[in-house]
Amino acid sequence: MGKRSSTLRVLLLGGTTEASALARLLAADGRFEPTLSLAGVTRAPRPQPIPWRIGGFGGVEGLRRYLAEAGIEALVDATHPFAAQMTRHAIAAAGTLKLLRVERPAWTPCPADHWLPVPDMQAAAQALGPAPRRVLLTIGQKELAPFRETPGHHYIIRSVDPPEPALVPPGAEIITATGPFSLQEERALLARHAIQVIVTKNSGGSATAAKLAAARERGIPVVVMQRPSAPAVERVADAAAAMEWLGAVWERGQGGAAPLEPRLG
């Protein structure tokens, strides 16, 4: 048998810092023919160094059809840790394709932190209690609805794009900003708005972690939505490890014997 094509067609499901880093690595490596797929949550995504598309696939069947029609040979899911449905769709659609999940480690509290873990945003809204508080919401636009049901607090909402007005709690302030945020910036934000509690998701990573350190310094409690249960799929923590995995897939396709060590989580 002869060798197959010298390049490996890769579909990268993105929208995260890790996906952007991996896209840059793939752009510089001639072994791969990558395509980046973005869900379209951000209204004006930054230009990417590899071919890219925006929008959904139409569920599992749509993704399966795309993979077949595009001749994809390896699928890398580097979506947000809370994009559980997309990860499930990727697993269901992959079939016999090589599939890798890139997922940054979750944050873990320090002894001085005052964290309140909750399973969802409904529980987070209830955890704020009845006494009026100044609350910083850094949770994304789709999770705001429960806080409309607890309007007694003053909300400061930080998001990449302005949320839809129908989702915003009455009287809330909107801050549009894109990370990474420095510790100095987060200190200033908490002081300027007299923040008394933060609500966030356990997204992990360094881009928005400084708010946790700033909260620790000021003794501010943080309501933290825990990650959904992770399906069993091969996974790595960053772009560099994903490139190693893709390199091994490419090598095996060329008749090499590079091992693929499963790391199920």
From TrEMBL:
- By its UniProt entry, which PROSITE patterns does this protein fall under? COBK_CBIJ
Q: EC top class, in one word?
A: oxidoreductase
User: Where does this protein act, in terms of pathway?
Assistant: Cofactor biosynthesis; adenosylcobalamin biosynthesis
Pfam families reported for this sequence: CbiJ
Species, as recorded: Teichococcus aerophilus
Supply the name of the protein.
Cobalt-precorrin-6A reductase
Q: Which GO terms describe its molecular function?
A: oxidoreductase activity
Q: Could you tell me the EC number(s) of this protein? A: 1.3.1.106
Q: Which UniProt keywords apply?
A: Cobalamin biosynthesis, Oxidoreductase
Question: Record's InterPro entries?
Answer: Precorrin-6x_reduct (IPR003723)
